Predict the structure.
Amino acid sequence: MRPSDLDPAFISHAPGYWSGESMERWDDHRWQLRNRVDSLMELEQKLNLTDVERAGVLLAGTKLAMSITPHFFNLIDRDDPDCPIRRQVIPRIEEGWTAPEELADPCGEDSHMPVPGLVHRYPDRVLFLVTDRCASYCRYCTRSRVVSGVGEQHLETQWEPAFKYLEQHTEVRDVLLSGGDPLLFSDERLDKILTRLRAIPHIQFVRIGSRIPIFLPQRITPELCAMLKKHHPLFISIHTNHPRELTTEVRDALGRLADAGIPLGNQSVLLRGVNDDVEVQKALVHKLLMCRVRPYYLYQCDLITGSSHLRTSVAEGVAVIEGLRGHTTGYAVPQFVIDGPGGGGKIPINPNYLIDTGSGHVTLRNFEGDIFEYPDPTPMPQADFERLHQEALSRSL
Ligand SMILES: *Cc1c(COP(=O)(O)O)cnc(C)c1O
C-alpha cells in the first residue's frame, strides 16, 4: 500500500513503472527527457486510463502537449483515478471546454511586452520568458497559449532587443527568468545569459522560476550548482503542489541548490482535487521547510482556458490560509494571491483578522477566534510635557 501523503517521511519512487531500467540511466537527466511519456500508447501501457483521460489526451495535441518525465510519472498511483499527481499532468476531457470567464492570456502578459519575451508590468522588475519548453507540462499552465510549442501562438524571445531594453531601463533592478523552464538550457547557455545580465550594473537581483527540481531532479547536478553560484545574489522559485512530489531525490536536489547558497521559495497553485485541503497543504509546507524551501506564494488558479475542473473558489484558498496561519510555523505560511485578470498583477488575499476599526482602537480576531482590542496611541498632554520639562531642568542645575 502507498504510504500516506500526510506522512512527513521522504520516500523514493524510483524506478517504479520502469523497474527494468538500470539506475545509471535512471539518474541521467538526458535519459529522463528522452523517455518522457508523451503518447497515448505509452500512457495506456502503464495506466488504465478513464474515458475522460483518454479523450483528454486525444484533444491535447493541438493545445498543450502532454509530456511527463519518468521520475514524475512514478508518483502516479496506478489504482487511484483521483490521484493528485495524475490530475496535474494527464489531460482530461474538461480541458477542451472553455468556460465563459476563461481567457487565453489570463494575466494580460501579451499587452505588457515591450519586447517579445519580456513582460514589464511592475515598475522595478521584469519577467523574462526565455523558453517555451518544460520538462513536463502542467495541465493548468498559465502560459499554455505559448508553452509546449503545439498551440496557435509561439514564443519568440528577441534576445538582443531584450538585453538592450534591460540595459536602457535603469529602473529595472530585478529580473525573473521563466518560460517555460530556464533550467532546461545547458549549463553553458544559462551561464552566458546570467553573465550578460550580471554585466548590467542596475540589475541587483536575478531569479529563476523552475519546476525542474520537481520534474527532473537529476538535472540539478553539482556542475549546474557550481555555475549558478557564480551569479549571486540568485534566488530560485520552485513549483510544488502536493507533498508526494517531495521525494528523496527532490530533497537531495534542493539540498544541492541550498548548499550553493541559493535561497529557495516555492510557488503553489491551488488546485481542486490536488491541494484544496488544509491537511495536504500543511504536509506540503512542512516538507518544504525540511528541504530549506520557504513557501512564497499560493496562487488562486488563473482563468486559463479549459481549467474550470481544476479551479476552486477564492473562499477555499482563504480557508487554507486560515488553517495554516497561527496553527503552524510562520515561515511555512505562503501569501495567497490572485493574479488580476487582464494584467492587474499579483493581489494579496488574506483572511480577515481586522474585524472593526473604531475611533481610537481596532478590534482583532486571532487564529483561535478570540477577540482583542488594540488601542491607538494617546497623545502626550501639553501639561505633562511641561511638568517633565521643568523636572529635567531642575536636575541639570
Ligand atoms: C510574478 C511576476 C513578477 C514577480 O513578482 P514578485 O511579487 O516580485 O515575485 C514580475 N513580473 C511579472 C509579470 C510577474 O507576473
Q: What stands out?
A: The pocket of pyridoxal-5'-phosphate is lined by residues 119, 121-122, 125, 127, 176, 346 (CB under 6 Å). The chain has three domains: 8-96, 110-348, 352-397.
